């Protein structure tokens, strides 16, 4: 039996999502931009998917733009917002533990003359006031993730955005919500743009969304046939959009799902307390969906492969970093011994107590077997 506990990297596609995709592929193959009936039928399905996702965020359908993934959404929002405001400012504020799709995009802005102010985490968390205190008349963009993908650390982006607007109403605020979407609730009142990705909630890979507040000034970064109001040109991926919407419907009970996952995380945390070589790296206030800990004395890669041989799947950090040392844990200034032995467990709706038991049993066995191997 497979015990998959790496849902922050990606999730298995649910049956309902897969069925929705197959329905579109079989029966609604028309190009939604076409004027004849087959295209119009496809367009209606596509727009219904947009409505479902808009409802989940409490916004208007016309504020939802489909993209290929969260990375694309982050790029569109960050480049588009910063460049649109370059005439009057050049400062960008970013947290020190962003996903590479944000961090590398912000770094690229430096080559265009922007000054980047990075707010480092303290004890694993970002203090909202640290971000707010750096906002100035020249701040064109503040970008912050609500849920960190490696430790699950939470950040009150709605509060930050409101305070930022009080200081400089022209400053754009972007939220990477990829790890939080349909897991945490969010107030979009003062947020200008937001990204989410289907494959984090049991929809297929290859579909994401960008929320953009109506009337927001965003300079286009992609050009083509003018689909998605010209923000994201290219033939629409109706099948995956509908699969995304089906997955959203399955995640609607955000509070109930969180209680279930919190119980699994508590069970894991209690079990890890039995080990004398485990250090918890996630803050106490982290999302229930992620737990990062260090299994001291053993390199992450060694433990991951040991567990994999027993059909238990976890990770050492962001899947996008491909095994490199954790950017987040290094930003937290953790000792090398903790960074090099870090394990990330991330839960999904399909997980059960049996998965937690299998992981704990695997770690116990790893401690015994790998210790013998060291000798």
Work out the radius of gyration: 21 Å
Residue-averaged pLDDT: 94
Question: Which runs of at least 5 residues are low in confidence (pLDDT < 50)?
Answer: none
The residue fraction in helices comes out at 25-40%
Specify the CATH class of the largest domain: Alpha Beta
Strand content: 5-15%
CATH architecture of the largest domain: 3-Layer(aba) Sandwich
CATH superfamily of the largest domain: Type I PLP-dependent aspartate aminotransferase-like (Major domain)
Shape: globular
Overview of this structure, please?
- The chain has about 375 residues and is of the alpha/beta class.
- The chain has two domains: about 130 residues, Aspartate Aminotransferase, domain 1, CATH 3.90.1150; about 240 residues, Type I PLP-dependent aspartate aminotransferase-like (Major domain) (Aspartate Aminotransferase, domain 2), CATH 3.40.640.10.
- About 40% of the residues lie in helices and about 15% in strands.
- The chain has twelve helices and twelve strands.
- The strands form three sheets. Strands 2-8-7-6-5-3-4 form a seven-stranded mixed sheet, with helices on both faces. A three-stranded antiparallel sheet has the order 9-10-12. The chain has a two-stranded parallel sheet with strand order 1-11.
- The longest helix has 22 residues.
- The protein is globular, with a radius of gyration of 21 Å.
- The mean pLDDT is about 95.
């Amino acid at each position: 039996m497979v015990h998959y506990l790496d849902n922050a990297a990606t999730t298995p596609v649910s049956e309902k999502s897969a069925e929705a995709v197959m329905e579109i592929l079989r029966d609604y193959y028309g190009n939604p931009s076409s004027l004849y009936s087959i295209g119009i039928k496809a367009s209606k399905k596509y727009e219904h998917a947009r409505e479902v996702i808009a409802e989940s965020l409490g916004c208007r359908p016309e504020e939802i733009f489909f993209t290929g993934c969260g990375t694309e959404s982050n790029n569109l929002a960050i480049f588009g917002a910063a460049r649109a405001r370059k005439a009057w400012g050049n400062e960008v504020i970013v947290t020190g533990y962003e996903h590479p799709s944000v961090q590398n995009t912000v770094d690229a802005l430096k080559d265009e003359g922007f000054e980047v102010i990075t707010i480092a985490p303290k004890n694993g968390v970002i203090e909202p006031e640290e971000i707010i205190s750096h906002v100035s008349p020249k701040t064109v963009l503040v970008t912050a993730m609500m849920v960190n993908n490696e430790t699950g650390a939470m950040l009150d982006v709605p509060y930050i955005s409101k305070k930022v607007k009080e200081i400089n109403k022209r400053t754009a605020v972007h939220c990477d919500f990829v790890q939080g979407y349909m897991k945490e609730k969010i107030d979009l009142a003062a947020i200008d743009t937001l990204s989410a990705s289907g494959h984090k909630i049991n929809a297929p890979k290859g579909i994401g969304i960008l929320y953009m507040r109506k009337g927001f000034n965003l300079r286009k970064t992609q050009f083509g046939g003018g689909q998605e109001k010209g923000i994201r040109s290219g033939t629409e991926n109706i099948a995956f959009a509908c699969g995304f919407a089906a997955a959203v419907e399955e995640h609607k009970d955000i509070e109930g799902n969180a209680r279930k996952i919190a119980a699994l995380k508590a069970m894991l945390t209690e079990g890890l307390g039995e080990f004398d070589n485990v250090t918890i790296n996630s803050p106490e206030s982290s999302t229930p969906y992620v737990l990062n800990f260090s299994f001291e004395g053993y390199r992450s890669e060694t433990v991951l492969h040991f567990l994999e041989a027993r059909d238990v799947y976890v990770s050492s950090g962001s899947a996008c970093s491909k095994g490199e040392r954790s950017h987040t844990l290094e930003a937290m200034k953790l000792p090398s011994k903790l960074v090099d032995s870090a394990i990330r467990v991330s839960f999904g709706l399909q997980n059960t107590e049996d998965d937690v038991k299998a992981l704990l049993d695997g770690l116990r066995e790893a401690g015994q077997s790998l210790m013998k191997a060291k000798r």
